[in-house]
Description:
- By secondary structure, the chain is an all-alpha fold.
- The chain is 57% helix and 0% strand.
- The protein is elongated.
Amino acid sequence: xxTPTTVGLGASGRLRVVVATxxxxxxxxxxxxxxxxxSPTPGPGGDPRSPGQGPGLVGDPAFAILAVALIAAGAIxxxxxxxxxxxxxxx
Length: 91
């Protein structure tokens, strides 16, 4: 039985699907493992989010903006690679 993603694909096409899937899984693991490793409890110095003041900005906004930009660049690159590997626009 064939799945809809492999219907009509030759051996090289199936290899591309396997490589793309493996790459996506590795990328997902690389992104999620550091997030899962973070501890939600404050360290020995107390809660570092708002030292001596009321509720304020939590985290590092520059890092968040950089992360979003990197994710966008990765999505654009992945799309361009996919279009290049699949033959581009067909008329």
